[in-house]
Structure formats: C-alpha cells, structure tokens
Design goal:
The chain is an alpha/beta fold. The protein has 2 domains: 76 residues, Winged helix-like DNA-binding domain superfamily/Winged helix DNA-binding domain (Arc Repressor Mutant, subunit A, Orthogonal Bundle), CATH 1.10.10.10; 180 residues, Glucose-6-phosphate isomerase like protein, domain 1 (Rossmann fold), CATH 3.40.50.
Length: 278
C-alpha cells in the first residue's frame, strides 16, 4: 500500500489553492491529523469542512473518516516502539555516540527556554496557585510529571493529579477554580483527553500551561501558555532526558521562588525523619 503522504504529494499539481493548504498541513503534521475530527482539522488549518471533504475525494478517499483511518495506520506503524528501536539498531555507524550527542544538543537547547519569560511565568504561577493540577498523557510524560508532583508536594504546594483515563479526566478538574492552574505534559502525540481538559479550563477561566514537543497540535492552539521542548523527529527513539531535566529545573526554580517557606518545610520533614528513625 502506498504511503498516504506520498499519495498526497503525487496529487499536488491537481489541487486547488485551498486543497494545497490542506495537503501541506497534513503532510507536515500527519500524527496530529490522525486524531483530529473534521471540525478540529478545518479549524486548525482555517478552511471549511466542505473543503476538507473535497480534498479527501480529490486524492482518492471516500471522505474524511477514510483519510483519517489511513493516517492512523501510518501513525501506528511509524510510532510503534518496535519500529523506532529497530530503526536505531539497523542504522550503520556509531549509534550510541550519535544518540548521546543528539540528547546533549537537545538538553543544551533547553537553556534558551529556561531563561525565557514563559518559564519564569510558569514558576510564578505554580508558586502562587492555590492548587496545581497535573496531567500527563503517559509514556515519556509519566516520569517528569510524577517527579514534579513529588517535589511540589514536599514544598507544601497543593497538587492534584488528573487521571489519564478517558472516562475519569473530569473527576478532579471539576473542582478547579480561577485561583488554580493546570499543567499538562504531552509528548509525541496529541490526545483528545488533553484537548477536552484545556477546553474546559478555557471555558471556566482556569489558567493552563502545556509542556510538549508538538507545538502545532490542537491542544497547543487552545492552551493559555505553551512551552515547546525539542526531542527530535517523531519516528525515532526518544530519550526522556529532556522532559526529566526540564521538570527538575522547574522544581528547583519553584523552590527558589518560594524561598524560606520551602526551606523550613524541608527542614521540618528532615527533623521528623530523624526523630522517628525513618
């Protein structure tokens, strides 16, 4: 079966200006389009749903659902862990040194973000929030988000984890108020659950922050504040080094922002451990 992106590019010369706009977006972000509804895709691109349907038929599909199904198959094949590891192992050359060098470069790129007003605003928001709601989509997000929850709780910050299970995403967030913030970590893909959470927060005047490597996903366009981390192409094996180091920088920055309050809380905890021999 032909790759869908190849099919789109093959038909490029026959497309109208609007259809070329749709083709360009799908070709550049096929992983996002695989989960978008037709309404979401049309909104992100800035075209009508009718134009999307005409485009689908032009390149040989019965409609948008058939196109999206093909994109999902492609996504599953390209992003399967087995394929990414196989791709790494079958490459010729010194893969290990090359992999480490790339991770060092990605980590180095973090310095520009850590020094940015965006990062400073996130730190201030966490330090001053009544409650910090945390969400992760799974995979690479688990380690940094749980590390963040661990340290923030020790600092005395009231934190609550939002369930990643589709039918339970609102169980916790329903109690959020305008004095709270929601911080989500999402890597490698867009998720409908995260989009629903951010839409809910937007409707209820709750400040949201999204940390992701997918700056063009639907959730990215809806969140109040967006911080994009670079981890490399989506179809290669990814290290958790960048999300984890970002999370650690964030915890230290929050400690610095809260100052004496944090130091006294940690000292009290250390004393309790010593007194109880634990």
């Amino acid at each position: 079966m032909k790759d869908i992106i190849y099919t789109i590019n093959e038909q490029k010369e026959t497309l109208s200006k609007t259809e070329k706009q749709i083709a360009k977006f799908i070709s550049s972000k096929p992983e996002n389009c695989a989960i978008y509804s037709i309404q979401e895709l049309a909104t992100v691109i800035g075209v009508s749903e009718a134009s999307v349907i005409r485009f689908c038929k032009k390149i040989g599909f019965k409609g948008y659902q058939e196109l999206r199904a093909a994109l999902k198959v492609r996504l599953s094949n390209n992003f399967a862990t087995s394929n990414r590891i196989q791709s790494f192992c079958t490459n010729e050359g010194d893969n290990f040194h090359s992999f480490i060098t790339k991770q060092v470069n990605y980590i180095s790129n973090l310095t520009s973000l850590i020094d940015s007003p965006q990062f400073a605003y996130l730190v201030k928001a966490i330090a001053e929030a009544e409650t910090v709601y945390l969400y992760c989509d799974g995979g690479a997000s688990y380690t940094p988000i749980y590390a963040l929850e661990f340290w923030l709780s020790r600092y005395g910050v009231n934190t609550k984890l939002i369930s990643a299970q589709a039918h339970r995403i609102f169980d916790t967030i329903v109690y959020a108020k305008s004095e709270d913030i929601v911080l989500g970590f999402c890597f490698g893909k867009d998720t409908k659950e995260l989009t629903k959470i951010i839409k809910y927060c937007k409707e209820n005047n709750i400040n949201t922050f999204l940390v992701t490597d997918c700056g063009t996903c639907l959730a990215s366009s809806l969140t109040s504040n967006l911080l994009v981390l670079e981890r490399g192409p989506g179809d290669v094996f990814h290290s958790m080094s960048v999300p984890v180091i970002f999370s650690e920088c964030l915890t230290l920055a929050v400690a610095q922002a809260k100052g004496t309050e944090v130091f006294e809380t940690i000292k009290k905890l250390d004393l309790l451990r010593e007194q109880n021999n634990v």
